[in-house]
Amino acid sequence: MRHSEPENRDPTEAADPGPAPAPHPDLNLLRTFLAVYRSGSFTAAGRLLGLSQPTVTTQMRALERHTGRELFQRLPRGVAPTAVADELAARIAAPLDALAEAAGHGSPGRARPEPVHLAGPAELLATRALPALAPLVSRGVRLRVTPGLTDPLLDELRAGRHDLVIATSRPRGRTLAAVPLTDEEFVLVAAPDVADGCRERLAAEGPGALHAVALIAYAEDLPIVRRYWRHVFGRRLNGRAAVSVGDLRAVLALVAAGAGFSVLPRYLCAGELASGALVLLHEPEDAPINTSFLVRRPGTSDNPHVALVHDRLLRAARGW
Question: What is the pTM assigned to this prediction?
Answer without folding.
Answer: 0.65
